[in-house]
Amino acid sequence: MKSDPFCRHLDHVEPVPCPCGASIRIITKADDLGFNLHITLIRDSTRHYHRDCTEVYTILEGTGKISLDDKIEEVSPGSVVVIPPMVRHRLWSVFPDEPVRVHIVGIPAWQPLDEHFD
Q1: 4, 33, 75, 117: least surrounded by Cβ within 10 Å?
Q2: Which residues does 10 contact at the CB level (< 8 Å), separation at least 6?
Q3: Domain count within the chain
Q4: Distance between alpha carbon 18 and the CA centroid of its chain, in Å?
Q5: Would you tell me how many other CB atoms lie within 10 Å of the CB of residue 5?
Q6: Which of 104, 98, 99 is nearest to 48 (CA)?
């Protein structure tokens, strides 16, 4: 099924609270495109994992650290992090007053039932 082209603007989508902070969910599962696109502001997220969704984080602004299972990586603008299913992950800002702004793509599209906490 071919979808029609569309354009959405960040300032027309209301942010929603999530375990990572505040998320602007521009493209969601409801769009039926097979992926999601969120812009999320993260000060300190809650460690979690997904059973089905692979996430790709691109850091747009801010400096932080991300734990991927037991490994910790530093991230800054231009960093790209691929998080396969079942990898426990958590991102936090090294400057608590300055959130990390993250472009997140999920494949297949993220859904609330695929967010798991230990």
Answers
A1: 4
A2: 24, 26, 39
A3: 1
A4: 10
A5: 5
A6: 104
Position 73 in a domain: yes
pLDDT in tens, 29-45: 999 999 999 999 999 99
Containing domain of residue 38, as a range?
A: 20-114
Residue 97 lies in a domain: yes
CA atoms of 65 and 45, how far apart (whole Å) = 11
Residue 36 belongs to some domain of the structure:
yes
| pLDDT value for 1 | 56
> What CATH number does residue 88 fall under?
2.60.120.10
pTM score, whole prediction: 0.93
Q: Give CA–CA dist 16/62, Å, rounded.
A: 20
